[in-house]
């Protein structure tokens, strides 16, 4: 049986890499490519692939939102997240959205075909390093929405006073949130907390404020 594949990524070079791997597999056929979440949804409607390989960070609609949108229309869609991010929070969000697997881009050349075959047969796949992180770390939702906002502000280098101004809360309240979130993350200091949150996908890679 031929397994039809749709590859979704906003980097043309990576799409070419996936295409070259698939081209050497007689039981695989690449039927569509997309460079954004919205395009992925449109292409899925058109070709109905057996398995979709989905990047997380893309313009216009990210991969997790695209998974949610696709599975809202096609509940049996089989989607594997293919990403550079090892963060357990990214993996957890992807699986909650309905992904059947989570694969690191570094695994493509060596393991992609076997993982896709396994997922196509109804199994789930999470890399051991990510599974271990999911098992040992506190869940991302242990942090309150406000604590995540404070962390995101700290990640772009804002002081407690500036964070308070941005979020319309007092500097003392910011300090309380920072103390609580560091305790939850078991972080040594605010920098450590930011690094941990970025690595786990609790917050995104920050964009420097222009104001």
The portion of residues assigned to helices is 40-55%
What letter string, H or E per element, gives the SSE order? EHEHEHEHEHHHHHH
Low-confidence segments, given as residue ranges, are 207-211
N- to C-terminal separation?
Answer: 56 Å
SS field, number of helical segments: 10
- The overall average pLDDT, rounded, is 85
Structural class: alpha/beta
Task: Say how many strands there are.
Answer: 5
Textual characterization of the structure:
The chain has 211 residues and is α/β, with parallel strands linked by helices. It is built from ten helices and five strands; from the N terminus they run E-H-E-H-E-H-E-H-E-H-H-H-H-H-H. A five-stranded parallel β-sheet has the order 2-1-3-4-5, sandwiched between helices. The termini are far apart. The relative contact order is 0.11. The C terminus is likely disordered.
């Amino acid at each position: 049986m031929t397994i039809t594949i749709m590859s979704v990524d906003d980097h043309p070079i990576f799409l070419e890499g996936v295409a070259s791997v698939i081209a050497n597999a007689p039981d695989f056929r690449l039927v569509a490519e997309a460079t954004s979440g919205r395009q992925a949804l449109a292409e899925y409607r058109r070709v109905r692939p057996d398995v979709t390989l989905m990047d997380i960070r893309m313009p216009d609609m990210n991969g997790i939102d695209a998974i949610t949108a696709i599975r809202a229309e096609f509940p049996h869609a089989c989607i594997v997240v293919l990403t550079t991010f090892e963060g357990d929070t990214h993996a957890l969000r992807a699986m909650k959205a309905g992904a059947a697997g989570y694969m690191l881009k570094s695994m493509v050349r060596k393991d992609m075909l076997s993982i896709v075959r396994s997922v196509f047969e109804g199994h789930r796949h999470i890399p051991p390093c990510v599974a271990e992180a999911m098992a040992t770390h506190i869940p991302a939702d242990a942090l309150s929405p406000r604590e995540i906002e404070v962390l995101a502000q700290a990640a772009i280098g804002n002081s407690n006073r500036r964070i308070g101004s941005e979020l319309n809360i007092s500097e003392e309240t910011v300090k309380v949130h920072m103390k609580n979130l560091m305790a939850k993350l078991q972080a040594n200091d605010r920098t450590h907390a930011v690094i941990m949150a970025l690595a786990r996908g609790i917050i995104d890679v920050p964009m420097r404020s222009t104001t």
